[in-house]
Amino acid sequence: MTLPIERGAATSRRAALAQARQSRRPSRLGSAAGAAAEPDYPVPADAGFPGLLGRSWKQAVSAPDLATAVDILLTLGGHVPADVQLRALRLADECALKVLCGKTWRREDDGAPGLGAAAGKPEFLGEIGLTVSGQVVLRVPGRGPLAGHENLVGGVLRVPWPAGALRAYRATLNRLRGRSADAVADCRQWLAAAGPGGRAGMLEDLKEAARRTAPFVLYQGDRQYTNFRDRNTLTGKTLWPGHPDCALSSLVALPLDLWSDGDVVMVVSLTLLVRSAGFARIEEANGTQLTIDHVAHLLEQTRLKYESVPGGQRVPPASSARVAALADLAGALSGRRREIGMVAQLYREIHGPLMHKIERIAPARSHAARQREGGLCARLSERLPAAGATFGELGASIAASPAWLAEPHGEFATGLESLLYETVAASTAAFGCDMAMSRGSRSLTALVRALRAEDWAQIAQWDLPHFYCCVVPAAQAHRHFGDSPAWLADMAWAISSRMQYNSWHFLVGNLPKVPEVVARDYFVPPTIPDIAYYSDQHHHGHVAAKVRFSIRSPQAVEVLGRTFNGFVDLRLLRCEGSPFDEQDMLAAHRASAFIATVTGAAAALAGDGADINITAFDSQWHWAKIESPPAQ
Questions:
Q1: Which SS3 state, helix, strand or coil, does residue 299 take?
Q2: Largest pairwise CA distance in the chain
Q3: Which fold has domain 420-626?
């Protein structure tokens, strides 16, 4: 076990072990860890996603008509795009909602009216419900009551079907079933053409994707494919690589003709997504049915976004809906994406309730964003031995004379720590955040030493205390935590600890894949920023810390010629109020790039022999800064 790195830590092993047994929660410093009889800050049982589902269902039940109720359920009361929920519907449910309400994600069918309000005697009484996973489900002809086979949030809404709806449903369902059967046959042919070696390579890539990617939940009819928590059906936190319960591992030695139709479509769909943008593209299908039609739709929507960026090699639409044509499109999009990344800012929009991500292309920076950067730089120029009206100028000023980064500055042991704090504090104020934060590696000196020795195993063994995160709340942020500075300090430290975990989780993803690295739990390091909406849903830490709206801006840092993606970041969060927008993200991304520039300069100093170790931003530091702030 690696002992915690804390300021003033005792040097003897006995003292170090005694300190390690003490609580690191700011409000419990000096007391034994794990001694509390109950949680200090209990979270209500319906906090997060269960509460959102319950409120959405109550709204739907109170709606004046079917169309309004369906809109509420599809958007979970305005918290997610309806398009995501429409693509989560099972095939029969999709057909039913189309004929009853005119709701569909298929552009060729969009705009046609539903028949739910048509005159005539009801020929069938159906149902609409909401499951505890957030899916909208329907009782359609031939299916029993939803309560018999669905885990529902509440009861059901009864939906009368007139004869016209039944006729339209039968025709639509037969058409889409035929289309689905054709897609399955096409997938089997494509996999057969790949041969045993090609299929084995796909399965290995997808197992690695499931292991190294953030949580995702995908559907195939009633079946789930997920690496998320205790429902795992793919390699992830619960299932180790090669586990027989992993849907991918179970296919490795199985002849193709014994693969189920669902598994065939799953493997082909995920392979197409990964080929278009790497593992992260899977998260853009999160919460939806995994079908070839949906993959084709996602790829085409991505192509249209990429077409909005002028210049470069244009990508034509897929020549057909067949898998071979979609594979060509996926490969072309991957190349176009790399090209776009050089001239435009890609980012992801995250919808927390369904963990769904959407890749976007940001517009140009506005005058307001440039003004915000100017204000941040003016404040930093007042507080640091550097000057510049933009982050580019400020970074260049520091790079020209970086020695002070390794020397004491103000209340901090190094200028780097002082700069990190001042940048985060300035961001908290400038962006109207409840908290801002930045994370990274505590010892650039140790990293340089390990890189020179190519001791990848040592880096893989580093634990959370080898990383830091500086969290700076706004002056009034305690209003979200019972007006208690102590509660706020505890939450800030909990966030800091989680961000240390993120640094630990990403770092080794940049290293050669030696056995010690491959065996380590890690995610592929992030490379583009994101804006998140209603993140206080699933993640227990986000629920407790009330992380509703956020911006994350990861940045790469070069150390001894090796690029470390996601090495540092800047994060902004709001517990309530208005979400962040694209211009907020663009300005934050510039601030984050400044932190990366300075960290790179400090790494170069460490490479030249400077001893650069960050000792601030531990639990004592957060307690002193938040619970007992200095008088203004």
A1: helix
A2: 85
A3: Beta-Lactamase (3.30.450)
